[in-house]
Amino acid sequence: MARPGGTVTGTLTQVEGLMGKQVELVRELMPHATTVGVLVDPPNQTHAGLHHEIEAVASAAGIKVVAASASSQAEIASAFRQLSQAGAQAVIVPRDGLFLAESGRIAELAQAVRVPTAHSLREETEAGGLISYGVNVPANFCRAAYFVDKILKGAKPAELPIEFPTRLELVINLKTAKALGLEIPPTLLARADEVIE
Description:
CATH superfamily: Response regulator
Largest sheet: 7 strands, mixed
Distance between the termini: 39 Å
Strand content: 15-25%
Number of domains: 1
Number of helices: 9
CATH topology: Rossmann fold
Helix content: 40-55%
Shape: globular
CATH architecture: 3-Layer(aba) Sandwich
Structural class: alpha/beta
């Protein structure tokens, strides 16, 4: 990361450990949960690693993980039925273009089976997901201006270290919590960067 080489530089949008943190947030929201679902998009090459991270943290906490695949809009509803039938008490939705585009539909399906969802992007929580914890994408975009400025002034991208994001954010949707009949612990609310009411 310090010397990326070639013409690559910038700020990362995914940080190792975020999916494990989402498992911890689910445990904080639902201390008695024994089964957590994961929605995966198999063509997304990052999902295998993210799923493994979720498995590692969940198994250490004595939580079973069940997964369901969805690679198209049409498959999302059946994936949620599958997760519900497998006993998922919450569903972790990893970062994915399809899942972001379908975040409103995912929120509807989750509420229909009364299962809270944890996401990586605030937009998914704004669309009706329960909670998100991840990189603040607008802050990354602002930081990109630093790289553009340096490159326009003659710096070679290969010499500009790739940066880890400096802003992570926790967003909680209280409207969704109310619809699910879930009470958010005050300690979690106090840590939130934003609460949607």
